[in-house]
Structures are given as structure tokens and as C-alpha cells.
Specification:
alpha/beta
Length: 263
């Protein structure tokens, strides 16, 4: 068993983001994990995973997300990855040890709407949630940012904005799948690396993550597992647990799609 377990509590999301891996899975209807079943599966895993990351779909759309997350947090270090939907109203019911990672497509209105395929109401709700991060003093809230491959981004300006909003870690993630504009993508990576290389690096044993300190926060550059040999992927990649109870290697997206369609 991998030291990292990723639990998909549902496949439904209120966003339809361009490039999201959720686009690759075809399901005839939305699947929400049975609460007791998924808890029983995770609590029975031996050896105990080092980390548990809860994802979806949008996990905060699962009616028992707090019960699930709190139970997992008593087993291993637990993180919830979210688009921020229903975040504030659920935080009071979550154990303070649970970290929150918000996937951020953009802070700019028009780009956010285009990338997430949503309207003004969803953007306004997103900004309201993000603006509350600075008040979560007893909890770690991180930002996930997939590196843009279509337009040039001023990542330094965006980073300063995220620091001001109270994020404690910002993670820049390589894009999976086809790159729209390779030159743009490479330039954006170069801009990020220019920020990272001037900072104090943080030593870790995971070759897929480069970490450093920047002002009061941590920056991470996430390298996709496909760039590494099979033995490295098996050691540092995720095992995925899906809402239907199926477990498979996270980097094998074909297995994920096949399992989903067999439901």
C-alpha cells in the first residue's frame, strides 16, 4: 500500500473545470460514497497510510463530509481538496488538524468563469470564501495552482495576493495531458522557478516535490509522477479509493475510468 491514500468521496462537482481529471471519467449518474462503507475500508487498511487526501468531485457536496474527514483524521494526517464550495459553513464541524487545499483556477473574474465554466454567482461565492481564509487562524489553508498553458501569468503578483489573503502554502502543479501552447507553458514554469530559486529550500525525501520558504509561507513545485521511474511512482504516488469502494493505483487513469464505467 502506498504511503499516500486519496479518497474520492463523490464524482459530482458544481464546477466543470477545463482540464480537470474529473472530465475523463464517464458516469451515467453521480456517485456519492456510502459513508459507513468508505470509513470501514479506510480504517481496515494495513499498514496505515501516512497521509489521506479527500477529493472528488467536490467533497463538500457529500452530506457526511465532516464525519468522514474527522474519522480519517484520527487515523492519519488528512487534507481536503476543494473548490471552496460550502467551506466556511463546514469548517466549524471539522477537526482543526485537517488541512484545507483550495484549487484556484484564477482570481480574475473572466478567466475564472471561463476555466471553471460557471457564472458570476459562483465566482462571487468563490471570492467570498477565499477572502475568509485570513480568519482561519487555527487551520492550515493551502492553494493548488495548475500551471497555465494558454496565457502568460504574473505569478509573483498572484502570489503576493494569496499571501495577503492568508494562505499558508501555495503549490504550483505541472499540467497533466496535452499542452495547448508549449512556449507559454515553458515560460510560465520559468517564471515560477525564478521565484523559487531565490528562496530557502526545504529538504524532503519526495523527488516529486520541490519546497522552499517564501516570506511567511511555503511554496511547492509539484512534478508529475509520469516523469519518474515505476519504483519512484509506486513509492510516492497515491493509491486511489473511489466512491464505489474500488482501490487502484492513482497514476493509472485508465483503470479509474474503467472502474467508473463498470458501476
Amino acid at each position: 500500500m502506498s504511503k499516500n491514500l486519496r479518497v474520492v468521496v463523490c464524482d459530482f462537482c458544481n464546477y466543470k473545470c477545463v482540464g480537470c481529471f474529473n472530465e475523463w471519467f464517464i458516469s451515467k449518474c453521480s456517485i456519492f460514497a456510502d459513508t459507513e462503507k468508505i470509513i470501514n475500508i479506510v480504517t481496515a487498511i494495513d499498514p496505515i497510510p501516512q497521509t489521506i487526501k479527500i477529493t472528488g468531485g467536490e467533497p463538500f457536496l457529500h452530506k457526511d463530509i465532516c464525519k468522514i474527514a474527522n474519522t480519517f483524521s484520527e487515523i492519519s494526517k488528512t487534507t481536503i481538496t476543494t473548490n471552496s464550495t460550502n467551506l466556511n459553513k463546514n469548517l466549524q464541524y471539522l477537526n482543526s488538524s485537517i488541512d484545507i487545499t483550495i484549487s484556484i483556477k484564477s482570481l480574475e473574474r473572466l478567466r475564472f468563469k471561463n476555466l471553471c465554466r460557471v457564472g458570476d454567482d459562483e465566482y462571487n461565492k468563490f471570492i467570498q470564501e477565499v477572502n475568509l481564509v485570513k480568519y482561519y487562524n487555527n487551520r492550515n489553508v493551502y492553494a493548488n495552482i495548475v500551471i497555465s498553458d494558454d496565457i502568460y501569468i504574473d505569478y509573483h503578483k498572484e502570489l503576493l495576493c494569496l499571501i495577503e489573503k492568508g494562505f499558508k502554502k501555495v503549490r504550483y502543479i505541472q499540467k497533466l495531458g496535452k499542452i495547448q501552447k508549449p512556449a507559454v507553458y515553458e515560460e510560465n514554469i520559468h517564471r515560477i522557478m525564478d521565484i523559487l530559486k531565490c528562496q530557502e529550500s526545504i529538504v524532503n525525501d519526495d523527488p516529486t516535490i520541490y519546497s522552499c520558504r517564501y516570506c511567511s509561507i511555503i511554496l511547492e513545485y509539484i512534478i508529475q509522477f509520469t516523469e519518474f521511474e515505476k519504483n519512484v511512482r509506486e513509492k510516492f504516488d497515491f493509491i486511489w479509493l473511489y466512491p464505489n469502494g474500488v482501490i487502484s493505483q492513482g497514476y493509472d487513469f485508465g483503470v479509474f475510468k474503467q472502474d467508473w464505467q463498470n458501476e
